[in-house]
Design a protein that fits this description.
By secondary structure, this protein is mainly beta. It is built from 5 helices and 35 strands. The strands form 8 sheets. Strands 1, 11, 12, 14, 16, 17 and 19 form a 7-stranded mixed β-sheet that branches.
């Protein structure tokens, strides 16, 4: 049974200024006083929310509390949905840090079960990585854990639990983390879109059945409701002539997105927080799998008074409008696109020596055969209405494997490494997807250079921490093993991870 990918009726976007989802950036461009007054007036009612200016410069201490919350996830005047949330809200607060500046984040657990926080994409000490049993003891109900690290890289990252991941992430525990550059690229606004995917029942409650064994063997738990910054997406108010830096974060359990910006030409300037050569996406389609992030520069060159859809058309036959850019009726802020560089400053990533690099091969195996043609998009199979709950996975029976070995669950103390890497040595890892399903493979503790896909070099100098493999894909990545510890490598379709598509790399 195929799930419906839909967005219900859209209520007004709430005012989330305190949560840091948008910040105004002052560029080298010097508008006149009149232009400043005009743009201020034009953006007051914007549905794109904005934080206190300069927050990251003043704050390096945070406290977040995972616990119960409520969210309006269903349209039509329905009641709020019980969720699990950081600080009572979904997504959690945007944490803004400064590159190279120490951060201290206290996590106080108000859930009725153990939790941890994984700081996804941050190159940090192993003890701060948030994997229960492997890198830290779980945070018990009522207890707290202090995470301390200094982010070496600027970029767009996110945070989420690594304990009972299916339920905790699937019930709302996720938030964006932005590490700001000392000198950001010129733009009029810096906007975060945290994209979420929910499976709701007819009453608007989160549907049970996490860990369904048949779903886990196919596309995972894809929902029937998509949210943008925790709400059903309404119009995003913009003004012609402005430049926006747009940070996309996909926090879904399994939903892959392919976004098309009608009437616009977004430029990708970073992948998973790591700067790349600025480029337009191939075919105008932005592919965003679970856990992946993209930083875009979008020049608003539409006509005043018009609306332009942002369309997600990844799943065959299930395209829908995610949101729309709604242009104010005012004259353009500027006649031509901002004449300023888009290239972000490079982060201090060690460059792998490909000549001396040791080579490793990882084969992704298992799952069920595909039930349809995967060309041009994806299929959602085994969706909805199934019984069986957690099935065999609750007892550790694996569905997936890497090189014939499986690790189930979220992390535990006796996870033996599949590969041991010498510290500070270079490595090339070839991942072969021998399955019929898509897998966003995430490596903790590192960013890697994406070298090739199916023998073809990957352009635009791309680094990532999560790489998406289509069925039968072969992808080569390279990195320097400069961060000691036991590090997870796993699929970020969370059902796949918990059902065996996970391993550990040890750096000594």
């Amino acid at each position: 049974m195929v799930a419906q990918a839909c967005v219900f009726a859209t209520p007004a976007i709430r005012d989330d200024r305190r949560r840091g989802l948008e910040v105004t950036v002052f560029s080298n461009y010097s508008p006149s006083r009149r232009e400043l007054l005009q743009v201020g007036a034009g953006l007051v009612a914007s549905a794109m929310v904005r934080p206190t200016l300069g927050l990251a410069a003043a704050v390096s201490d945070y406290k977040i509390t995972p616990g119960p919350g409520r969210a309006r996830l269903k349209g039509g005047g329905g009641s709020n949905t019980d969720v699990w949330a950081y600080d009572g809200d979904v997504p959690g607060p945007v944490i803004r840090l400064r590159q190279g500046k120490p951060a201290r984040i206290v996590v106080e657990n108000r859930l009725q079960e153990d939790t941890t926080v994984h700081w996804h994409g941050i190159r940090l000490p192993n003890a701060m990585d948030g994997v229960p049993g492997l890198t830290q003891p779980p945070i018990k109900p009522g207890e707290r854990f202090v995470y301390e690290f200094t982010p070496p890289d600027a970029g767009t990252f996110w945070y989420h639990p690594h304990a009972n991941s299916l339920q905790q992430l699937g019930r709302g525990l996720a938030g964006a983390l932005v590490v700001e550059e000392a000198e950001p690229v010129p733009a009029d606004r810096d906007v975060v879109w945290v994209l979420g995917d929910w499976r709701l029942d007819s009453d608007g409650n989160i549907a049970p059945g996490f860990g369904n064994r048949m779903e886990a063997a196919m596309s995972g738990r894809v929902g029937n409701t998509v949210t943008l910054n925790g709400t059903l997406p309404g119009d995003q108010n913009v003004r012609a002539g402005e430049r926006i830096r747009l940070r996309l974060v996909n926090t879904s359990l399994a939903r892959i997105m392919a976004l098309r910006f009608e009437g616009h030409r977004p430029v990708i300037v970073a992948v998973d927080g790591q700067p790349c050569d600025p480029h337009e996406p191939e075919g105008g389609r932005l592919l965003l799998a679970p856990a992946m992030r993209l930083d875009l520069i979008v020049d608003m060159q539409g006509e005043p008074g018009r609306r332009y859809a942002v369309i997600d058309d990844y799943y065959d036959g299930l395209a829908y409008d995610l949101t729309s850019f709604a242009y104010a009726g005012q004259a353009p802020l500027r006649k031509n696109p901002l004449d300023a560089p888009m290239r972000l400053p490079r982060n201090p990533l060690p460059e792998p020596d490909l000549q001396s690099a040791k080579r490793h091969e990882l084969a992704l195996q298992g799952g069920m055969p595909s039930m349809g043609n995967m060309t041009g998009g994806g299929k959602m199979q085994g969706m909805g209405g199934m019984s069986g709950g957690t099935g065999g996975m609750a007892h550790g029976r694996a569905i997936w494997s890497i090189n014939g070995t499986s690790m189930t669950g979220d992390g535990h103390a006796d996870m033996l490494p599949l590969v041991t890497l010498m510290r500070d040595s270079s490595h090339v890892v070839t991942m072969r997807n021998e399955t019929a399903w898509w897998h966003p493979m995430h490596l903790h503790g590192f960013s890697f250079r994406v070298l090739s896909r199916n023998g073809v070099p990957v352009p635009h100098n791309q680094w990532a921490d999560t790489v998406l493999l289509a069925p039968k894909d072969t992808v080569e990545v390279a990195f320097v093993a400069d961060n000691p510890g036991d590090w997870m490598l796993h699929c970020h379709v969370t059902d796949h991870q918990t059902a065996g598509l996970m391993t550990v790399l040890r750096v000594t």
